[in-house]
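re: the backbone from monday

yeah here it is again, tokenized this time
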């Protein structure tokens, strides 16, 4: 009798766990609001990182470099494949404590990623709070080619 109750309880727990909705993932391809960039966010150790995989500027000029970087030694690196997001740790609503690099001005900002729903991600970059800017990125399919 006890054994059949345990089996029933385990089966019920497995059914509840299978039916429970899963949290949307930050991993995937995201369309930015700037230059129609697409950033791929993927695991990076215990964190996530975001790499620039294409943009309207890269589609026209694939060899664009990081010319606004304050470090002259880094100005020759290609924008294609450049890590823009790094250093995050998981929080209940997304990822915090990371940084976002902006190749338009060569600056790195404190950043937070907030999952709004399965297809929308708020990306917030701050010089320091309250001097922040946010964008909402939209999930997209993997680009056909890596420009």
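seq for it, each position gets an aa:
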């Amino acid at each position: 009798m006890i054994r059949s109750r345990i089996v029933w309880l385990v089966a019920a727990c497995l059914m509840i766990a299978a039916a429970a909705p899963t949290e949307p993932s930050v991993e995937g391809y995201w369309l930015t609001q700037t230059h129609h960039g697409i950033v791929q966010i993927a695991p990076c150790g215990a964190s996530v990182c975001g790499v620039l995989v294409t943009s309207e500027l890269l589609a026209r000029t694939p060899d664009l470099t990081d010319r606004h970087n304050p470090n002259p030694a880094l100005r020759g690196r290609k924008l294609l494949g450049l890590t823009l997001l790094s250093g995050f740790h998981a929080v209940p609503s997304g990822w915090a404590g990371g940084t976002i690099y902006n190749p338009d001005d060569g600056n790195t900002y404190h950043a937070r990623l907030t999952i709004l729903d399965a297809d929308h991600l708020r990306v917030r970059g701050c010089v320091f709070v309250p001097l922040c800017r946010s964008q909402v990125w939209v999930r997209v399919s993997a680009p056909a080619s890596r420009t």
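The longest helix spans residues 2-19. The helical segments are 2-19, 56-60.
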